[in-house]
Automatic annotation (TrEMBL):
Residues 14-67 form the HTH cro/C1-type domain. It comes from Mycobacterium kyorinense. This is XRE family transcriptional regulator. NCBIfam families: antidote_HigA. InterPro entries: Cro/C1-type_HTH, Lambda_DNA-bd_dom_sf, Toxin_antidote_HigA. PANTHER family: ANTITOXIN HIGA-1. Keywords: DNA-binding.
Amino acid sequence: MPDFMPTHPGVILLTEFMEPLGVTQYRLAKAIDVPLPRIHEIVHGRRAITADTGLRLSRAFGLSDMFWINMQARYDADMARVGLGDQLSQIESIA
């Protein structure tokens, strides 16, 4: 189990992209043509970044298509590891 709680991709979106660039939630929602509540929920860690939203975010910030998709997948896997705890280490390999 990790010694830290994984950081939700929405927090990274807010702190590493939106805030430094002065981009509001409203402006981002309009730029990528999604409802404002979607951005609000993402940046507050209450909603995952879907493939659709990830592709839109990548285009808006000039990133690779897989940037946000991979970040969300990594977060999901890390959270699953935290949730499974010691159960994961008790699984024996069958191959």
